[in-house]
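User: what does the whole thing look like in 3D?
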Amino acid sequence: MDLGQINPLLLLASLMVAATPILLAAIGEAVVEKSGVLNLGVEGMMITGAVVGFAIGVNTGSPAIGFVAAAAAGAALSMLFGVLVLYLMSNQVATGLGLTLFGLGLSSLIGKPYEGLKAPSMAKWDIPVLGDIPILGPILFRHDPMVYVSLIIVAATWYVLTRTRAGLILRGVGENHDAAHALGYKVVRVRLMAIAFGGACAGLGGAYVSLVRVPQWVEGMTAGAGWIALAIVVFASWRPWRVLLGAYLFGGITVLQLNLQAAGAAIPVEILAMSPYIVTILVLVVISLRGNHGAPGSLGRIFHATH
Amino acid sequence: MTGDTRHQNALLTLEGMTKAYPGVVANDQVSFSILPGEVHALLGENGAGKSTLVKMIYGLVKPDAGQMTLRGESFAPVNPAAARSSGVTMVFQHFSLFDALSVAENISLGMDNPPDRRVLSARIREVSQAYGLPLDPHRVVGDLSAGERQRVEIIRCLLQDPKLLIMDEPTSVLTPQEVDILFKTLRKLTAEGTAILYISHKLEEIRTLCEHATVLRLGKVVDTCDPREKSARQLAEMMVGDTLHVPSREAADPGPVALSMTDVSMKSPSEFGTDLRNISLEVRKGEVLGIGGVAGNGQDELLAVLSGEGRAQTGAITLGGDDITLLHPNARRARGLLTAPEERLGHSAAPDMSLTENALLTGAVREKLVDRGFLKWGRTEDFARRIITAFDVRTPGPDNAAGSLSGGNLQKFVIGREVLQRPDVLVVNQPTWGVDASAAAAIRQSLLDLAHHGAAVVVISQDLDELMEVADRFTALNEGRLADPVPTQGLDVETIGLMMGGVHGETAA
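Assistant: Here's the predicted 3D structure for the full assembly of 816 residues, as structure tokens:
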């Protein structure tokens, strides 16, 4: 084994890229769950975003338009979930699982003609001055714009949830939907908007996989990233900055174990491959042991306006 | 004051308010008026239409017909925000609070144009001091006591400078001292010209507080009166429209100890629950022990540790002299310890299952409804029918889902289910919560009869009048501790209040 092959700078830089899809999906799902809805269809919305983003990106030659289309596709698919769950009162767990299966099938259908094509490349931003800082420059400031967009979304989510009235109403709806309704808030409307945001974020995350990370279309290419995003939301106690920590931890260990495999480390491949899952869950569990960070009170419960 | 002058000076006038739901007319041509600075009581049994009526005033329900006039102008709120901006606010029966949010955040959610958070916190402190309801704006609501939680609701209303304050069962969770504080606050408000529409089942309170009462029965206004000039019994009979049966008890000598707890402690299984601390008590055969206390002081936990759902961490529980501390619920049932928890839907009964199936759930062991793992449906249905007949449960038949019954009928069913199994010890929590007067009287009578036939009965309740009526001895839970039981005879309200507030020692005198 030659650990000298592993370049720590490259490792840290690729960590952010590896974590971005999960981060985007998880921050969207955190908002959805904060509003009291459990959407298990993240994987389905991600893969749909991946294929739509790729197809539009290839056809227009512009990854940016691809990302916008992916967000729209994820949001559109999530609205299917929203209507079923909020208006037709279907079971959230079953509907979410159904959405994942539907998304996987739909993406295979759309993606057939695009197999083997290459995505239009996305220029990296060489941020002047900041990008020239030794060590920090290459790690933090020489990425594609989507990495920064994802960080802005996390910061904005934190700000809106904790500092604004809209965020307070969203938390109220998720905490006790009957009380929110009694005070005159539109529970269904708030939740519908949260679900759409979650769908758009999952779509962006999926498109990041197909347009930047891989970058081509392969059937089932999100490979469970949506499920990891769901787990991270829970273990991060529904807090935006902890979602960021969890996603980067997962991305970091994924990149590290790939490097270790390439360097021929004397650890069984299976153990290396499962290490990101185990380490992420362990760290977030240890963090969430302290204090009270319970789930939103109305999470997963069907809202029935009785009046 | 005559009807006409009431009408002219009214703050709010209701005329011909009607609302029908499929199969039931909740309100039928309801008309009355509320004067400024008046405490106006709305009386009626469960299902009389009080909740629907106030929801129409608060903009939560759209009336089918009728009109309202507020300060001379037509008033038809399309939503609660519109009602609030016209000066109508409401304190709910089941608190509409958000456990995980802070006091300030909760209050902010109930306002239409809340000020900046720092200004709001200062305003909360200021108003809460002015009305004698101290409150820290930064505490998390889930950690507050029931009385403090109600303060949050009231202050949320006061900050909006209300003209009319609607209160739905505001005192059901308060200690007598907290009720006094609340009444002082309300009198202060009425002195400033605010009108209060007050809904309560507690007739004595209505007699102390209210100046005018409107009585509803089956959605119609049947009477109006000045409650200060009527007795509680007269008010109850106006509501029921019939003479009221008052439970009677026959004196019996208490027998040997049936159930005892020695130094029992248990950690609460729920996050916002109360741990039980060193609880000791003895209940004798033929005796009814009443356990009072404000909600959330360990009532659910006490029932759980007795039923076997919870396991005591320390201490011992004995039944007829045998140690049952480690036994499971079914083993305890087999030995004659039966329980009926507070929550009807989801705890003492499964709402989506039929009455027959619900009868099986607790009756399987003692009524021998299971044979080598197979269910005996015939026997079970007979058992369900027996409960329905003996306890006058109004339902088309035992095949109906438990959730389709009204609260009072379902409560009669779950209490009857335990009583008919001839328990040696029966523990019930809130046996008449949200049950109308006649059903409540029937349930209390059945508990007294059970004790008369030699069973030991433990009644956990927040309704002090109920405990005074049925219990031989009284004690109270406070923060998971139990006061020393005292005889109910000759007990005064002040002692009870001290016991509920957790002041011990002085009560022995």
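In plain terms: The domain at 3-119+144-289 of chain A is CATH 1.10.3470 (ABC transporter involved in vitamin B12 uptake, BtuC). Chain A has a mean pLDDT of 90.
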